[in-house]
Queue: 2 jobs
Job 1
Amino acid sequence: MKKLNIAIIGLGNIGSYLYKFLEKNKSILSKKNNCVPNIVYISAKNKRRKRNFKIKKKLWLNNYLDATKSKNVDLIVELIGGAEGPAKKLVFNALKNKKHVVTANKALIAKYGDKLSRIAERNKVNLEFEASVCGGVPIIRSLKEGLIANKINKVFGIFNGTSNYILSSMDKENKTFQEVLDKAKQLGYAESDPSADLNGQDVSAKLMILSSLCFNSFLSNNIHVEGIKEIDKEDISYAKKLGYKIKLLGYAELIGKHIYQRVHPTLIKKSSYVASIDGVLNAVIIDGTPVGQSIIQGEGAGPAATTSALISDISSILRGNTKFPFSISSQERKNLNFKKISDRSFSAYLRFEVADKPGVLSNITQIFSKNNVSIKRLVQDPNKGKRSSSIIIITHPSKDKSLNKIVHTINKRSYVKKRSKLIRIDEK
Amino acid sequence: MKKLNIAIIGLGNIGSYLYKFLEKNKSILSKKNNCVPNIVYISAKNKRRKRNFKIKKKLWLNNYLDATKSKNVDLIVELIGGAEGPAKKLVFNALKNKKHVVTANKALIAKYGDKLSRIAERNKVNLEFEASVCGGVPIIRSLKEGLIANKINKVFGIFNGTSNYILSSMDKENKTFQEVLDKAKQLGYAESDPSADLNGQDVSAKLMILSSLCFNSFLSNNIHVEGIKEIDKEDISYAKKLGYKIKLLGYAELIGKHIYQRVHPTLIKKSSYVASIDGVLNAVIIDGTPVGQSIIQGEGAGPAATTSALISDISSILRGNTKFPFSISSQERKNLNFKKISDRSFSAYLRFEVADKPGVLSNITQIFSKNNVSIKRLVQDPNKGKRSSSIIIITHPSKDKSLNKIVHTINKRSYVKKRSKLIRIDEK
């Protein structure tokens, strides 16, 4: 039987899991793919770090970059992480030297995917990154193969388990952001530095990758990104009363000839599918023609789910299934018109914490009307014993820039006691 | 650019849609797959049937079987339907003559898939059948590729849109089976002869195919099949009161060393994911290691969704992605131990319509206890003015054969006014 020689570079949780999984399942994977996945090298920054397996001496590479030069290597699995530094060096060199590459590195692909893809195509090797977007959800393969027929006009969903866990726990347990974050760290659902998960950057990289696959465009970093740190438990509870849940969603939409990419907390109807996804799950929803709406849901992260994705990429290369990294060749990919969301219209939820005195409500509603934003619902909720009120407003669809201008204007008023909130509403 | 010559045989709704779609999207599909999908022949039983496109004379084949002999054909798309007759002849001959085959024919694959697969493997051609199982849900490709790493222990879900539409409409609109079926026919959600959809046969064929893909086994027709015709609106309403919905589900489970295949109406908790799938949607849920639970949801039928699946198979062949039809070679597939469900345990819902007289309840509970089935909940509901009662019982997990024996025994009692009901309960 044919063999494919593999080097695994990076042996953290995921690299270690993958190594053991490949060794254990070599025989069944060989049978399924008619080719043996043969690990010839492994390497990582620190050889002496504690790992739950023994490193075979003959496999260890002192200089990880040697894997890119060795004639004995067909495929390099990059599990170092980060858009720059060693990961970048490894992947660029590997492709230049005609090695196939499989990576879980969303930051690298979101930043250098276009360049890397050109090199891979020129050298007729695979660059596969299923594991970079929502680990256990086989979304990239589905876009490139299962749903290849479709013209896609929208991709959205829950792409970050940590922030989804936090928002759904705040909702269920009526706790503050900080309380839930502390618990998430204890449970291992949040890293010790969870900032990329919470500020939307992680979702942003995944969305950029999905959107270029969906729309056959080059990667664009014209993307609006907000995280979940500003969400108070009051927002969650008002949303609930109004029939909504708050979720951190990523959206890429083709509207007319423009593509809008955005990542932000969103109010969505409790009864919608996306609202039902709680905890660390991920879900990706695709609207396409002819298929209609397709949904893929699964575990988004962790060594096990990520290994499932890495193995699917490795298997694809074992079978000799050469494909363009982004579905079509770089020559055919387009520079589409990515647009800022300021001109797009949204319904929105706004919350103002104001002093309880005459004229405030009338001033606020005047500012709305001056900015041509019409109000659909208004709730005034006096805060007991504090001489202040919460004013919650749901608007009809209005330009994003007008909504922002309202918040900006009102924030400058002396009656405002706390920074005002603006959370967009999505219909489904 | 390379070309792949295609013959489409069968030009009903699906064949016609596919033909037009391929013609219209030839260029983008060529770019994505680096190979041109080139239709060289089309054929169908009746040339003169009204179609919404004009048949080009030079494409028409009078004898559809000529496509299997022509040197000018690389791939045959079979859209005739049915496990026997012309479809069978076409697919066997095509594979024997080393033509790739793409088909939407679940009945044929469920019955002859093992034989066909051996011929395809021997002749190194593809036999692809994504469109045979839940059209718009790319489940087969996901099992064979995206989730290839996984050892799967359970696959289940909603595989028939017609019956799901009927059950969910009965639930929402509080209507009888017949009322809803009539409406479904008007709306085009049920065929004029919907028996295969309603008696579970359609789900059964799909489940057999999925289960051999999941467990690397040969197809087995050891499968328990019940349809939805016996479901009354009373069952739906009692289920509702007890916190459940009734769905027609297909299940294939590996428990210990045994595989159980079953298709039947099931009571599932309202709060579960599957319960939320209403209308004509399909959803497939996979439990695997390492991936955990994966869900794929989408439109299950209709020309558009089915074409999405057919094109994904055709594209795979355009890219030269040769694969074993059932994921691993026939030599490696196993004869697993498929077992009847009579020895498996289920919780169950039972409904008895009985005369309202002393001793009945005590007799019923005695029969339960004689059969070692313990009762978890019992509701006695007198039917106003009819001197009869409904007795609803939810049991603890009990052997299927004991549950059936109870129904059988009680049905013979003179106090029984209507055939008793037994609906199994699944936990998620």
Job 2
Amino acid sequence: MEISPLTVNRLSLYLRCLHSLEGEGVGRISSLELAQQFHLSAAQIRKDLAQFGEFGIRGVGYEIPNLIERLTSLLGLDRIHPMIIIGFGNLGRALAASIGFNSGNFRVVAGLDNDPAKIGRRVGGVLVHDASETAAVVAATEAEIGVLTVPAEAAQANYDRLVAAGIRSILNFAPTRLSLNAAVRTKDVDLRIDLEELSYFLSS
Amino acid sequence: MEISPLTVNRLSLYLRCLHSLEGEGVGRISSLELAQQFHLSAAQIRKDLAQFGEFGIRGVGYEIPNLIERLTSLLGLDRIHPMIIIGFGNLGRALAASIGFNSGNFRVVAGLDNDPAKIGRRVGGVLVHDASETAAVVAATEAEIGVLTVPAEAAQANYDRLVAAGIRSILNFAPTRLSLNAAVRTKDVDLRIDLEELSYFLSS
């Protein structure tokens, strides 16, 4: 079963909403209530969740603990995913220090940089290694996710090094078009493109 | 003419590629060459650019300076867009200091925070103001883009304050589902959701 990234993203949203409801002591919710409370589409919720079996009972709604358990397992959030950050500049450091990023199932276990002033230092609890030792660091930490926060011109070489080291997924912040390895899941976060989208709508 | 955000994002990519080619002294390129060089789809390029008139001449390709000029104007990149950052924590500071974010057409002109230790201080050239003065800061700086880097629980109140202050577009990093104002263009950058997408594909 192949689920599209957009659907996966919505499942994450639903799970976040369900956790919030569970925290408030709510045990059951209908797609309509869920939609109204979190500014979502009830039809979309029903469609998305129908793909994974019959969670909902018509007229009764979803059992929140059960749905949380299923979505948690489906999204791979029943275990820790070790991450390494490649490029320990402003953004790399900020991500390592971010509670929203480096927490829960996602833990930054090492940094990589090519700046001798940074290598061997511990920044916010994260030890920075020489980027030339990528393979050894990935092997030692069993990192699954590589977070690429290097400048655009250094991105492809570091991407290739991560792939060669056996990293299976990459979150790429470098504003460049990488030549991708099909076996590695790569997600681009291109803030420049996001700003230009806003600029377009400001100007149109 | 309404262009979808995904198309706008591709136009940004094309423009970036064209700038790179122009820097190499290339004056003209076909959709096929453009696609091959930057790992894009030639058919998609032709379709996207056809919406804006006949840039290309069959068998000849696009005149790069002309296409750059048209895309630059279309994307609103022929002028500066002042930005304010709301929440001067790790991420807000990193964005203000980032050459990829705070440069070119996009300039951070002020920061906002509610921490007395930060208010009135200049961090990386950006003066941090009291978040309660959002309206006055937006008016004084003529900021067009609000960058929301506050914790999830503070996001809605600050979003509403930005909207009331007349901000027309918002880049939201807070991992929460905001109740949106339809007149304000809001773009979410939700790194947690991006990580969960990678987690799903790691687990499936």
